[in-house]
Amino acid sequence: MKFLSFFGVLFFTSSVFSQELNCEVQINFDRVTNANTQIFKTLQTAVSDFMNKTSWTDKKIKNREKIECSVFINISEFDNNSRFVASIQVQSTRPVYMASYLSPIMNINDKDFSFSYVEFEMMNFNPNNFDSNLVSVLAYYAYIILGMDADSFEPLGGTNYFQIANGIMNVAQSSGFRGWNQADGMNNRYFLVSDLLSNTFDPIRLGLYDYHVNGLDAMVDNPKVGKEKVKAALMELSKIQNVRPNAYLSRIFFDAKADEIQQVFSAGFPMNLSDLKEQLIRISPTNADKWATLK
């Protein structure tokens, strides 16, 4: 009875509420030889349907409110049965107020991604059970996308979504798949969601809000003030560097934002950027070439 009740709730939810993501999915299998390519096409359709047709929240949204995002799965090994070894890159954007421009929010390349998939198998998400590493990883990143998007519109607005992602991580830790545990390395799903829920990293989450709402969104009315607010938001990130240098979450932020930051400060209203350049080089030295162009 409980089993039927659970799927009854799932059916009701998906028939009443809109889906939140507009996710483009690509599967690359160039490195795999001597395999029937049809399974990769079926997998791509299955992942796309899962990301786009699952109701991740209980909110009603309009099509224009869906989050633009993408999932790129790069298959490196396939055993011609059901086992895949891959990496997964997840990206998302959010619209800028009164503009056609989409601002990048996250760009994560997760290399610890192996899973089993049998062609045409059902992909159902139950947050309380680990049924498939494919399903758990996709659901985890769906809630990370939702959380970071919410943070960009409201101070710490994504906490509830990150807590769900944290629950997925906790359930998956005993699965034996890499990426869910603290011992699996410093740049994995465990540390991503743990940092997002840690008060230590509030400056990054609050900076995401200030950067967008008080910065980019304000540029339509006052480009000068908007640009100054973007600078102020970036300067606040030095707080993280002081306590957690080279933090994974800081790198994720700049992996998404480096090109945009360069564009914002390479044109338009002139301002003194010497202090900003100094901080950016200290926080994100891998992008030093971009910071050198700021003027």
Architecture overview:
By secondary structure, the chain is of the alpha+beta class. The protein has helices at 2-16, 38-53, 133-151, 159-172, 189-196, 202-215, 223-236, 238-243, 248-264, 274-283, 288-291; strands at 21-28, 67-78, 83-95, 102-116. The protein has a four-stranded mixed sheet. Strand 1 (21-28), helix 2 and strand 2 (67-78) form a beta-alpha-beta unit. Helix 3 runs antiparallel to helix 4 (159-172), helix 4 packs antiparallel against helix 5 and helix 6 (202-215) packs antiparallel against helix 7. The protein is globular and about 60 Å long. Mean pLDDT is 91; it is low at 1-17.
Characteristic key phrases:
295 residues, alpha+beta, 4-stranded mixed beta sheet, 4 strands, 46% helix, globular
Major sheet size, sense and barrel closure: 4 strands, mixed
List the secondary-structure elements in sequence, H or E. HEHEEEHHHHHHHHH
Structural class, judged by helices and strands?
alpha+beta
Radius of gyration, CA atoms, in whole angstroms: 20 Å
- Can you count the helices? 11
Dominant shape: globular
Strand order of the largest sheet: 1-2-3-4
Helix content: 40-55%
**On the 0-100 scale, what is the average pLDDT?**
91
Spatial separation of the terminal alpha carbons = 66 Å
Layout of strands and helices, then pairs:
Layout: H1 2-16, E1 21-28, H2 38-53, E2 67-78, E3 83-95, E4 102-116, H3 133-151, H4 159-172, H5 189-196, H6 202-215, H7 223-236, H8 238-243, H9 248-264, H10 274-283, H11 288-291
Parallel strand pairs: 1-2
Antiparallel strand pairs: 2-3, 3-4
Helix pairs in contact: 3-4, 4-5, 6-7
